[in-house]
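Narrative of activities, Objective 1.

The group set out to show that a structural description can be obtained from nothing but a protein's sequence at a throughput compatible with the screening campaign. Below is one input-output pair from the validation batch, recorded exactly as produced.
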Amino acid sequence: MTRTFRWALVGLAITSCPAFAAAPSKTPPAAPAEVASAAPAGTTLLWFGSSGNQPDADAMAVFETGPDKDDVRHRALVMFGKKDGKFVPDFSNDKVIACSQCSQFHDDPFDGDYVKVTPGHAHIEQIDSGEKSSTTVLDLVRRSGKWQVTNAIRTTVVAGRGPEKSEKMALPASGLAADMDGRWTVPVFLNTLLVNHKSGKFMFMHGNATPDSVWKDLQGDCNKQDCTVLVQQQDGCISLVRDSAARSFGGAGADSRDEKQAATRAMTACTASGGQECKEVRTDCSKGI
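Output recorded for this entry:
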């Protein structure tokens, strides 16, 4: 992706708004008691589906953890086979189903509406909220009592509008779904506010993968001697406030829907430093890419 930025004294706030995002279930879905009791430690049932009521029915359940320190929920897939009238776990894998922020928009690619379980087969599609969605498609097939991965394709559309790239995902050497790694991660997109103390100009940058890559993207427009990073974080809002002496202060808030929080913190930093006539200059909000 090509990142764009500019030195500015005023600017338009940028907010990334996903078209949709699958929210964690408020109440556990209906499932047989033996399925719910098979939850891996520290998880609760997020989704359940089966191939029907046949004596040798197959079923799939997705369990999730509570939010971690970054408000991310992680998932485990468990496949079941019916034996003597009850579902018995066939295997468990915590690397197949995406986490709650594992997309370039930091939304949830998993939605049970895109999972289909039929006898001996599970078809899983995980989709982000881009204008043109990125997708990860997996097909699991039960053969000789073992679940194998027969198809794994990831199609990525950069920023939901860029060119489409499809690639076959690496399959485990065993071929077994129990060993499949979906390579899900939460992509890092840092938002940064810099100020040039010589010129008085400031800059809001979005989409850097590492703190140091900010300086590389500046391409000579600024250096560490003349410029200071006032704020840097992932999702949320960053705000610039200046006082009557043209001193700059930054503030941040983790909620990308709440500009006021970041602006208030920047104002507080200004007044705490003895600033006079502190005034908000600009606040930018962003989530994901």
